[in-house]
Design brief:
It is a single chain. The strands form two sheets. The protein has a six-stranded mixed β-sheet, sandwiched between helices. α3 crosses α5 and α5 packs across α6. It is 38% helix and 23% strand. β4 and β5 form a beta hairpin. With 253 residues, it is an alpha/beta fold.
Length: 253
């Protein structure tokens, strides 16, 4: 059984059909990329699966259990995490505190607040702080453990957001354009990090416009066009698909 099953998924905003009857399965432990032109429905698809939007029709199953219509908080507790195109970082907090925030969805909310505020739970606070520091080292931000978020570069903040998502201890992580706005060196670092995450046992679903990165990382690729599924397959199959070349890849192929 696939880890994630998406069957005939659609969402309509008034007369606009943003995603239309899209179906695919994702096996555990792989990097699965979603590509397509601007406006193809990639982020909308992410929003449907991660509970930001409720589908008009269709179903989403995680380990065989229906999760369509569940809230992002409920999905986080089931092991689904994500990042966003635009940074969602709390700039008035430290880098470590930003990562610690990611832990609250897998802890009792009152316990999390208490761990941060009350001296009687200092032991749990220390555990959370060390866990956050370890995640920062995992994503290559060990030098920023004591830094304020507003003192970090844009590239470092992109990886900080990934660390915060990993603090939820997900089985499935959705990364929405993690290399957007990065220079070539930072893009290579994110490329290596995505593979490192997958190798650690977390299934990665990736939206990314950098085709070199997508082709290098992906075990499977889904191509959307105007909200519809255009193609699905391995990197080599997608690279050679004439419909994909005509609609999207062009010179990038």
């Amino acid at each position: 059984m696939a880890l994630l099953e998406v069957n005939d998924l659609s969402i309509h905003f008034g007369g606009v059909k943003a995603v239309q009857n899209v179906s695919f399965n994702i096996d555990a432990g792989i990097v699965y990329s979603v590509i397509g032109p601007n406006g193809a429905g990639k982020t909308t698809l992410f929003n449907l699966i991660t509970g930001v939007y409720k589908p008009t029709t269709g179903e989403i199953r995680l380990d065989g259990e229906g999760i369509h219509g569940k809230s992002p908080n409920e999905l986080a507790r089931r092991g689904v995490a994500r990042t966003f195109q635009n940074l969602q970082i709390c700039m008035n907090m430290s880098a470590r505190e930003n990562v610690m925030v990611g832990a609250h969805l897998r802890l009792d909310r009152n316990l999390f607040k208490a761990a941060l505020r009350f001296p009687g739970l200092k032991s749990r606070d220390r555990e959370l702080r060390e866990e956050a520091a370890e995640l920062m080292r995992f994503v290559g931000l060990g030098q920023y453990v004591e830094a304020r978020a507003d003192a970090m570069s844009y590239g470092a903040l992109k990886r900080l957001e990934i660390a915060r998502a990993l603090a939820m201890k997900p089985r499935l992580i959705f990364l929405d354009e993690p290399a957007a706005g990065l220079n070539p060196k930072e893009t290579i670092e994110v490329d290596h990090l995505v593979r490192k995450i997958a190798d650690s046992g977390v299934t990665v679903v990736l939206v990314e416009h950098d085709m070199k990165m997508v082709m290098n990382l992906s075990d499977r690729i889904l191509v959307l066009n105007y909200g519809k599924k255009l193609a699905e397959g391995s990197g080599e199959e997608i690279r050679r698909n004439p419909d994909v070349i005509a609609a999207y890849l062009g010179a990038h192929a």
